Structures are given as C-alpha cells and as structure tokens.
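TL;DR need structure tokens for one chain.
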Amino acid sequence: MSQEIFSNPETLPADEELQPARETLADLAALAFWQRLVSVVLFIVAGLLLVALVFPLFVGNEAIGDSLVGLACVGLPGTVLYVLPAVMLVRGAKASADLAAGRGSYALLPFLDSQRSFWKTLGILCAVMFVLWLGMMVIAVVGLTFSMSRM
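>> reply
TL;DR here they are.
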C-alpha cells in the first residue's frame, strides 16, 4: 500500500482537482471487491438463518409455538444483524468503485459517508448485542442463584 494517498497538490495546475494516486485507486478497487464479497456472504447467512427457523413451521410437528418464538426472538433480530451491514456494504462497494473509477473528489464524499455510516452502525449493533448479552448473563446468574437457594 502506498504511503501517499493523493498526488502531490503542488504539481497540479490551478484548474485541476486533486486525484488519488494510482496505488490508491487499485486499493479502492480491491476494497470494492471485498465489500461485495462480504455482503454476499452476509446475505447468504441471513437467508440460511431464516430458512433454518422457518423450516420447522412447514414440517408440521407439535412445536409450532416454539418455532414461532424462536423465529421472533432469534430469526428476525438475527436477520437484521446480517442484512443491515450487508446492505451498507453494498452501498460502500458502489462508493469505493466510483472513487476507484477516477471520479475524483466528487466521489470522495459519498465514499467517506458510506464508510462512516457503516462503522457507526456496526458500533451501535455491537453495543446493543453486548448489552443484550450482559443482560442474559445477569438473568442466568440471578436465576441460578435463586434456584440454588430454594434447594
């Protein structure tokens, strides 16, 4: 990876805009590829999660209520955890590809905005999942303590 992201601004004529260096454009094209690949994998995982949770509903066993609870508690939130970043990665891949295509500073703002929104959303999702995990641990410890004290 190149140390210089943009060409030297002192060598630019007054009427030209700042353009990313060639190595940076290659890195942006590679970034767009990996963003698309990861988004496809996330969409596949979300689809498999939904199929695994909806399949018991069609089998016709007696545990339909359990399947509905699993779908509501795990399936829908789990799908959001995979689909939302996947959609944002698709947006980011388009912005990366636009910037790599040499569209200059006009494509820089959408690229930076897509990166900012992706990482902000991912941070919020991680914080929410941590709080939920912490809540489950507290409930498990309190439940175990309560059940052990009744013995």
